[in-house]
Queue: 4 jobs
Job 1
Amino acid sequence: MSNLISRFHLLLLAVLLAITGVILMRVPDDFSYAAHWGAHSQPDWLWPRNLALSGAPIAAFLIMLVFIGLGLGLTKNRLLLTRHILDPALTVLLTVIDAVQMGFLLIGIGSDLDLIKLTAYGLGALLVVVGVVMAEAERNSYAGLRLPWPIRGDRTWRIVHRTTGIAFGMAGAGLLAAAWLNADLSLLLLALILAVTCPVAVAALATALVPER
């Protein structure tokens, strides 16, 4: 665990738990979050407070378990090769989860600041930049995808990275569009989840399926 879960990651987890505690103290038990708006601008899908605030801690603990498993499963050499990808990836994931939970707190206390939408804008812009950089990058020994299986051949490397870059760019653009179009809370959270998971899945599939050249 010490190889992938740093003290900073534990701090982010502690911040999440602290925000959750503040929600329990400041937001009434019977408060509900409007997850979807129907006709005449009336909410037709409500999330009870406890249901809404439980999602972020569950997601954070599951993600931490996945990274603990990666730390136990990867060899020392492979861990060294992938650390520069996995460490910031975990940081971004936990930061997004913290921001979403803070957004629930602000909504619950009646604040006009939509932190969840701002998070979607920020993450969307970041994913677009990552996508452009990855799609345009040439093969090198310092940056790029680091997965348990190697990418052999310059042509394969370019195909995989351009495919992955397009996936990151599309995920970022979709997230920006969802925020710009004032998507309902449930749709915006779904867009956040898809934006951080789909490009990673595309990267893994592209690396495994693209023929070696």
Job 2
Amino acid sequence: MRGDQLARQWRILRHIEASHNGLSVRDIMDLENTSRRTVYRDLEALQAAGFPLFTEKIEGQTKWAFIDDYKFRVPQPFTTTELMSLYLYGDFIKVFKDTWYYDALESLFKKVRATLPRETLAYLDNIQSAFSVGIRPFKEYGKYREILNQLSKVLPKRERVEMIYQSLRSPKESLRKVDPYALRFLDGTIYLIGFCHLRGEVRTFVVDRIKMLKVTGAVFDLPKDFSLEEYTSRSFKVMQDELHTVKVRISPEWSRWVGEKIWHESQRMEKLPDGGLEMTFDVAGLDEIKQWILSLGPEAQVLEPTELQEMIVQSLEQTLQAYQHAYNQKRAME
């Protein structure tokens, strides 16, 4: 109940902030579909939390609004609730601890704390106790602080870099000359997207596999036809490869859980007579969606393409062999 109450009070603040002439209790009751008593209780709680709300008569109605001259000044162009939202976003930056990004954002959050009154901060702490953000798994990017710092400087300047890189599939390191286009954070990992002169195409690099980075000072032009959104739209996660249409059958037992989420922007779903789901994706490459399907175990079955079916079978056979080998070794030692 506490979380519902805080969420409703937050929405009431947003409603009042968005109104031009304030809102009556009846207006808020209609917007929130709640009782008069609840609205009054919420407004009293918000005033006690330090929000500069007041009432005035407008055309015979009592309206609630923010005081024009706030008792705490909100830096322009932020509104009060925007500033509060920014403060609550603090959980998201923990993944960047010990990096330049974290230092800059932490400094910003300290300024937010200095701007908001003590009562409002106590109110926000109540919200944070009812709402938390968990980002797992993630990597400790503090050890890559200098590389991230260099990339953050060269990206807006469009400066070429040279780097020693070790890909996931190769034990050998290679020297790459790269035009960095953008950084992308996904599933706890930071990726660099840029034109690789060694491969002659746009590639995606895992930042923590960059062993050394050097700024060359050479400037490049970002291709006018390059779109980061378009480049990443076909990837199931980050992989870029041949485009495939993938069809997967989800069991009736798991259809609701799987069907409630957007796994890829291309996904299409069809309900089956037995309660299961048939999901269709258009994705670049098969390795990443293969890992997703394997994570669902027997609740997911690949219908097509055949190539992906064979990849799944091979992975399952290798897993079974590994477990069987470990099991046999254990039995032999008993």
Job 3
Amino acid sequence: MSLDKVVLVTGGNRGIGRAIAERFVSTGYTKVAVTARSGEGPAGTLTVPADVTDAASLDAAFTEIEATLGAVEIVVANAGITRDTLLLRMSEQDFDDVVATNLGGTFRVVKRAAKGLLKARWGRVILISSVVGLYGSAGQINYSSSKAALVGFARSLTRELGGRGITANVVAPGFIETDMTAELPEATQAEYKKNIPAGRFASADEVAGVVTWLASDDAAYISGAVIPVDGGLGMGH
């Protein structure tokens, strides 16, 4: 496995994205870049400012990465937002903003990277979805829809680019230990965990381990797959 591949993790300054970037660095990758709207990525990474809803902003970020590290070869589309509320209270703006970031952002990032992947005849495209993409979640019609769409995206991309040494896969995390879940009342956490066969939340690093594996040579013949990291909650969708 070559550890000099250029890696890009969008939204790599916090949460799961940060854990993914940290995992690539600790695995030995020496050319890891992250995009962030604010803040910095982990030590050992190149942070470039970018907003995934803005194609010009992304193009500038890619241009900086290409000049500093080289053409991006491993793309982890992680940046995402939520605007949770029930359907009858959800505004068009709530819906459009989430879809523009979670689905549109993935489209813009992968499209900008695609020429370099095709030129290299090698690439890994890893999309970070969610268990709720296919499991569903009340109050998250916008988020669930945007995350479900990533499955069709990865499978269509596999059919377009699969013959060029490029794979495209989806990782679907379940409940993850974050600052947000830590703030939930203990009774609420216990209720959530009752529905998870594993009986616990995942660490962000457990998601990151699956992502780095998909980027490795061991996963070269896997494409168009949805890999749940949810303790059995979605039963593989």
Job 4
Amino acid sequence: MTQAAIDGALAAAGERAALANRAGGAIELTEVSVRFGKAGREVTALQRVSLTIAPGQFVAVLGPSGCGKSTLLNVIAGFERPRAGSVRVDGELVTEPSPRRPVVFQQHSLFPWMTALDNVAFGLRMAGDAAARERARHYLALVGLSDFAEHYPEQLSGGMQQRVGIARALAVEPAILLMDEPFGALDAQTRALMQEQLLGLWERWRHTVVFVTHDIDEAIFLADRVVVLGVKPSGLRRIVDVDVPRPRSPRARLDPTYQALYQELFGLIREESSKTFDGSRAAS
């Protein structure tokens, strides 16, 4: 396939995805509570969280360990049912997982016996797409891995494996992309490059993205809004708008607004983390 053909196919896919995103991708959580365990020994993972995410927004979910970030993502994905409240996507109640809400995890979930190409094509094949492998090639090109289509996961670096995972998620052309610390296991340089690549993809297609992270800088660099979760109780602490101009490059970190946001979020996370620390110290 020539580069011109790849570019044309990607442009067409981008147009389809953009149209889908304009028509959908809205997420609404209403008074969502999640508890684990049995009566008398329950742990509250989320408490009465209400949140509205508009189509095409990039939202980062930030907070200390144990505040329910991944639980919030799992509820949106349909992996976890709330004990109370509801989650709706484009007005429809979420009751189970859907390929239209793909998740990219911190540790890649690629099939080790499949090549990169076949991993990306897998979801398309399950959906009955007769041209699955050809479309998968387009999405590998989108993440810069055309030359690695026939490589197996063990032959790829950590960053490449994550790019294959992103390509697989994008291949079904979803309006929503859910990401659970997808770059957390990467080295600092690879992580920075992956952040920039993800932003480039989002700028092009404008998926609704919900991105869980522990990293304050990552949250500000990527997101339109940062949702801060707290502990004791585990719930929504604050929503912070990121008023840093787009498109963003690494130089955005020099913006005074960026630096002020970092200090604000650092203070919030420090305050929430201290609650856990103080509680552990009191218990001992």
